[in-house]
Amino acid sequence: MNVNQEQLIIFKTVIECGSFSAAARQLGKVPSAVSMSIANLEIDLNLNLFQRIGREPVPTAQALTLYDKTEQL
To answer: Contact 31/1 with Cβ under 8 angstroms?
Structure first.
């Protein structure tokens, strides 16, 4: 597992902002960098964190559990 702090910060920001593009704006990154970071996090954790249906990503139950754990950091 190669999860790093930046991936968790990006993940947390996506959850809080509700979209990859809004998180990218808040973090000063391009949306593709946010999307790639989330994809890599999903690979590293072997989890699907978001359902990509429609324009906005919908957090899975695993994502909400991970988000709760990031709040403790």
So the answer is: no
